[in-house]
Specification:
This protein is an alpha/beta fold and 447 residues long. It is built from 14 helices and 18 strands. The strands form six sheets. A four-stranded mixed β-sheet has the order 2-3-1-4, with no helix packed on it. The protein has a four-stranded parallel β-sheet with strand order 9-8-10-11, sandwiched between helices. The chain has a three-stranded antiparallel β-sheet with strand order 5-18-17.
């Protein structure tokens, strides 16, 4: 971050019972706040012009995030008897993430989160033949008072739009669902985003549950309450923050996931290591072959650790005031690729992978990271069989026009997530040399 004349450093934890201490930095007017945690320390660096944070200043902050992990990095076997539970701590809106094998065969996990008698399962044409009957069975076994409706949407990012969303509302209204109903998202990130947005909007808000069936959804999009749809001018521009009652991750659903979808999800796993969890990234470097071979224990650990990282960040910054934005490493470039090609031509993780390489390249041009990180990022993405450059059709102008309407633009200033410092550290900032962005775009585009 270029402007750090009076940085304010905050080390935060997800636990509310921790103690904080405030002291002056040596030879400086800066202050340092540290909240100790048994699992992680998340650092924020901001440059306000006064003691209070205000909306006008927030758009100009640079935010730095890192995580210091002390947990065991070894994969553990998970049986179908007891799921691993990761808690998303949001006060009275907290919820569990259940992770394990065979969880769809444990009906009590879902039923405890259904408070009314009516359920609407939202899924797609690919997932429905595989898991819809199983989910309906889990919702109704020994629970005859619950009735389940379903709506099956077309599959693909290109259908993440208003026309498709209306089909969910049509089914809910035709079925005369009331405010005590529960929506269930059964599928990948597109289904989860649309079902969550429908739940946030129908009757001004009804309960919903996430059952993600792709790596992408299991490690990222199902956790944290981001919901929405795309607009022709930009990705995820219409939506809401709306948290589920629970997230149920049955790792057995990955057995039917195509190889390309599996690799796509690994882009988000890699992201966590780069921005805040260096030990996790090192584990990935050692275990990428196992992940690509679908080793169940390796995947169980990768999903668990990713969810822990996501839950920690969401608990601290639910509505993306700063810290949560760091989870979007590579996404600003990646969303431009998805929009420029046409939604669905590249999978989300493929676009994010190429975008991550571009963000890392820009970080290096700014002098914020050393060349070894650049090489390691490219190497691990290649091992995951993910793109390391945008498609040739993308031009500098295409990138700039889409990035100009990115959600992270504030007061006309494009803020980016870039790596800075040792592995596992990043900044969210608009304070960077624009020449570096131009040089990166020209390096990756022919025109």
């Amino acid at each position: 971050m270029a402007s750090t004349a009076n940085p304010f450093f905050a080390s935060l934890s997800t636990k509310t019972t921790t103690k904080a201490s405030l002291s002056k930095l040596t030879n400086s007017s800066d202050s340092f706040l540290r909240v100790k945690s048994t699992n992680a320390a998340v650092s924020l660096r901001i440059s306000p012009s006064s003691g209070e944070l205000n909306r006008k200043a927030r758009g100009r902050f640079g935010i730095c995030a890192s995580s210091a992990q002390v947990m065991d990095q070894s994969p553990t076997k998970m049986g179908s008897e007891a799921p691993v539970i990761v808690e998303v701590d949001l006060g009275n809106r907290s919820y569990p993430i259940y992770i394990g094998s065979g969880l769809l065969d444990q009906p009590e996990l879902l039923q405890r989160h259904v408070h009314g008698k009516r359920v609407l399962v939202v899924t797609n044409t690919t997932v429905a033949p595989l898991y819809l009957d199983k989910v309906i069975e889990a919702l109704t076994r020994g629970n005859p008072n619950v009735s389940v409706e379903s709506v099956i949407l077309p599959d693909g990012e290109k259908y993440k739009d208003m026309d498709t969303l209306v089909k969910v509302f049509d089914k809910a209204i035709e079925s005369r669902l009331d405010r005590r109903c529960t929506f269930v998202a059964l599928g990948g990130g597109v289904i989860g985003d649309m079902c969550g947005f429908a739940a946030a909007s129908f009757l001004r808000g009804v309960n919903f549950i996430q059952i993600p069936t792709t790596v992408m959804a299991q490690v990222d999009s199902s956790v944290g309450g981001k919901t929405g749809i795309n607009h022709p001018l930009g990705k995820n521009l219409i939506g809401a923050f709306y948290q589920p009652q629970c997230v149920l991750i049955d790792t057995d659903t990955l057995k039917t996931l195509p190889d390309r979808e599996l690799a796509s999800g690994l882009a988000e796993v890699i992201k966590y290591g780069l921005i805040r969890d260096a030990k996790f990234f090192e584990w990935q470097e050692k275990n990428m072959k196992a992940l690509m071979a679908r080793d169940p224990n390796a995947f169980a650990y990768a999903i668990k650790r990713s969810c822990e990282n996501k839950a920690e960040v969401v608990s601290l910054d639910e509505k993306e005031g700063g810290l949560r934005a760091t989870l979007n490493l590579g996404h600003t470039f990646g969303h431009a690729i998805e929009n420029g090609l046409g939604y669905g031509e590249w999978l989300h993780g493929e676009a994010v992978a190429a975008g991550t390489v571009m963000a890392v390249d820009m970080s290096y041009r700014l002098g914020w990271i050393d060349d070894s990180i650049v090489k390691r990022v490219r190497s691990i993405l290649e091992q995951a069989k993910l793109p390391t450059a945008p498609p040739e059709i993308m031009t500098v102008e295409m990138f700039k026009s889409v990035m100009a309407v990115d959600k992270k633009v504030a007061d006309g200033l494009l803020r980016l997530i870039l790596l800075k410092g040792p592995l596992g550290n990043c900044v969210f900032t608009g304070d960077y040399d624009r020449k570096a962005l131009d040089e990166t775009l020209r390096a990756f585009c022919k025109s």
